[in-house]
Amino acid sequence: MKNQEIKRSLSLILLFVALAMILTACKPVDPVPTAPPSSDERIFQDSVGREVNLPARLTHLVPSGPLAQIVLFTGAPDAVGATALPVTETQLKLLGAGLSDLPVVGQLYGKGDEFNVEAALMAGTQVIVDIGEAKASIKEDLDEITEQINLPTVFIEASFADMPRAYRDLGRLIGDSERTDQLAAYCEDWLAMSEKAKNTIPEPERVKVYWALGDAGLNTNAVGSFHSELLEYVPVINVADVEPANRGGGSEVSMEQIIGWQPDYILVDGAKLADEIKQDPAWSALQAVQEGRVLVVPGAPYGFLADPPSVNRYAGLSWLGPFFYPQIYGEDARGQVAEFYELFYGIELDDATLDTILDGSFK
User: Fold this and answer.
1) Is 264:207 a contact under the CB 8 Å cutoff?
2) What gap in Å lies between CA 361 and CA 357, rounded to an integer?
3) Any idea what DSSP says for residue 243?
4) What are the residues whose beta carbons fall under 8 Å from the beta carbon of 233, sequence distance 6 or more?
5) Which secondary structure element, helix H or strand E, spans residue 129, and what is its range?
6) Within the chain, where are the H helices?
């Protein structure tokens, strides 16, 4: 009898356990809570659609090369953690000696020193910022580089016309758009004047120029090259309608070709080359040289037409636009250039310094 009661008790216990298991199985299971995204991180989508995981607060940006270096110097000066190339003595005189304290990590790709991963890590690099022309393979290239060096990279497209968007993308990257919006608006104003000039000045009335590069002036940035892009926006006619060079140094041309083109003006990289052109009998066959229409392209702290082809070209537009077409751009080229320097470089130029910059003698 006692054994039967024990069996009945065990049976009831088993029944209750079975029912409990059935009820538990039928009850909806709450999902395991997932950890929310860290407040210290965020996702940034770059110009080619790459989604890059970055720290929420960026204080150590590193440029991929000289073009990106200028955009970061001007748009996010307090967030630059290193440079791709050393800042020259001439540049330091205008941009401030403090830049000499930044470590140099080399270029991410292209000519020059290889990227120094160890130096970048020691500089506390949070992200490498590549800015410039969007090559067909840019997405794959940066993904591969990111994997190789184990540092995040982002790309911001920045042709001449894309510069307003490039600055706004930079503002979005650093989480502070006050300064970058101001620089973007400046570029938009000059692009609007450029568009007006292109729509107003018929091609037969546009100034024809030859841009003399190299030791003898027989190299040039030809029509269609990335480095000659600004000339289309002034707009002037680049007489060197030859095959664009794929590498630095420009396309090679002959003296005979230049004489055949008979440009209205010669734009010359450097005062030394300009003096040589004025004194060379071969160049005197050009009416532009005979009549003194030889212009030195200013190059401090960066070239006005390229060198490198970054936002510094807007200084070139503020110089050449008023010089060639004052009816569109106004007559105060000096004032326009001074305004660019103050806004982008943070420099208030006195008249003497501005004179040396514009005549190419600033050292």
Assistant:
1) yes
2) 6
3) P
4) 160, 161, 191, 194, 198, 317
5) strand 127-132
6) 2-26, 66-75, 89-95, 117-122, 138-149, 163-174, 178-200, 229-233, 255-261, 271-279, 287-290, 313-324, 326-329, 333-340, 351-358
Which positions ≥6 away from 238 have C-beta within 8 Å? 209, 210, 211, 221, 222, 223, 228, 231, 232
**pLDDT tens digit sequence for 240-275:** 999 998 676 899 999 999 999 999 999 999 999 999
> Are 41-187 and 202-358 equal in CATH topology?
yes
Question: Lowest mean pLDDT: which of 36-50, 121-135, 251-265, 328-342?
Answer: 36-50
Distance between CA atoms of 93 and 116, rounded to whole angstroms?
27
Q: What is the mean pLDDT of residues 61-72?
A: 96
Decide yes or no: CATH 3.40.50.1980 for domain 202-358.
Answer: yes
User: Which 3 state secondary structure label does DSSP give 235?
Assistant: coil
Q: What is the pLDDT of residue 38?
A: 61
Phi, psi of 53 (to 5 degrees): -80, 120
Q: What angle do CA 236, 212, 266 make, to 5 degrees?
A: 50
CATH number of 41-187: 3.40.50.1980
Residue recorded with tokens 């289309």? 232
pLDDT of the residue at 113: 54
pLDDT of residue 132: 93
Q: Domain coordinates of the chain in residue numbers?
A: 41-187, 202-358
Rounded alpha-carbon distances, angstroms, from residue 232 to 66, 194, 207, 224, 260: 22, 9, 11, 9, 21
Single-letter amino acid code for the residue at 306 = A
What is the DSSP track for 23-82?
HHHHSPPPPPPPPPPPTTEEEEE-TTS-EEEEESS---EEESSHHHHHHHHHH-GGGB--
Using DSSP's 3-state secondary structure scheme, residue 219 falls into strand
- DSSP states along 288-332: HHHTT-EEEEP-SSS-SS-SS-STTHHHHHHHHHHHH-HHHH-S-
